[in-house]
Design brief:
β12 (258-262) and β13 form a beta hairpin. The longest helix has 17 residues, at 69-85. The chain is 36% helix and 20% strand. It is an alpha/beta fold. The protein has a 6-stranded mixed beta sheet, sandwiched between helices. Strands 8-9-7-10 form a 4-stranded antiparallel beta sheet, with helices on one face. The chain has helices spanning 2-14, 24-37, 41-56, 69-85, 96-104, 142-150, 185-196, 233-241; strands at residues 61-65, 89-93, 120-123, 127-128, 134-135, 155-160, 176-180, 199-202, 219-224, 246-249, 251-252, 258-262, 268-272.
């Protein structure tokens, strides 16, 4: 919207003498156009998060709080609205990170034992395809994210434009996470590679020796599939889930209600299921 306005303004602006090439005003004007085109990813995430929160968070509701960098902005906006509007909310976390965000912002912390039904869950995604199939779990919280999402009437996805793809694997190259029981990771790796091709790698920790351990005490295998092929993700997800030792996958099929993608120019595009 801002970029469109500036384009309409351009013929008017450049016709004025004070905007002649090389003048201070001309340089400032060109700088403003460049700024619009180069909005940071963090700003794009913030735009998507704020719009989703403003549209879906209502008074006297139970909200699932997802994990990841974009959700930080959503929690900040929720806290702003609670303070300014006096909203009464209960927030259900999907991870240790989400729990800490809820506490730090002074929001009401809840759990699924007392709140098994949620009005909506707001979460990020590593990639969203044209059919609203998601890859989640880049941060290792896929199991709890999926449990909370399954309890919500609506799963609202917030992300920047780099997460928007026509098909999975188009932009996200780190594979589909599969959370597994530690003792079974080698048999599961062998079975998935044999049945679906591609390669699976045990996700290794960065600040510790050995593999990543999830909040649930499990390992994560990242499946690097052939992104040139077409897949029935619902069928594949079901088949992988049937392998003994698989706890869950980062494929979220038929779960998302709506997705918001923050764009480089500050606008937000939307996609419905």
């Amino acid at each position: 919207m801002i970029r469109s306005f500036l384009r309409q303004l351009s013929p008017i602006v450049i016709s004025k003498p004070e905007f002649a090439a090389g003048t201070t005003l001309a340089k400032a004007y060109l700088s403003s156009l460049t700024h619009v085109r180069t909005m940071s990813l963090d700003d794009a995430k913030k735009c998507a998060a704020y719009k989703a929160v403003d549209e879906f968070v209502k008074d006297n509701t139970v909200i699932g709080i997802g994990s990841g960098s974009t959700v930080v902005y959503a929690v900040h906006r929720i806290a702003e609205r609670v303070k300014s509007e006096g909203l009464k909310l209960v927030c259900i976390p999907t991870s240790f990170q989400a729990r800490q965000l809820i506490i730090e912002h002074g929001l009401t912390l809840g759990d699924l034992e007392c709140n098994p039904r949620l009005d909506c869950a707001i979460d990020g995604a590593d990639e969203v395809d044209a059919k609203m199939v998601l890859i989640k779990g880049g941060g290792g919280c896929l199991l709890q994210e999926k449990i909370v999402a399954s309890c919500a009437e609506r799963l609202i996805v917030i992300a920047d434009y780099t997460k928007d793809s026509s098909k999975l694997g188009q932009q996200y190259r780190k594979g589909i996470p599969i959370e597994v029981v530690p003792m079974a990771y080698v048999p599961i790796k062998t079975k998935v590679e044999k049945q679906f091709a591609g390669s699976l790698k045990l996700r290794m920790a960065v600040a510790k020796a050995g593999p990543v351990v999830t909040d649930n005490g499990n390992f994560i295998l990242d499946w690097h599939f052939d992104d040139n092929k077409e897949y029935d993700w619902d069928a594949i997800n079901r088949e992988i889930m049937m392998i003994p030792g698989v706890v869950d996958t980062g494929l979220f099929v038929g779960m998302a209600t709506k997705a918001y993608f923050g764009q480089p120019d500050g606008s937000v595009t939307e996609r419905k299921a």
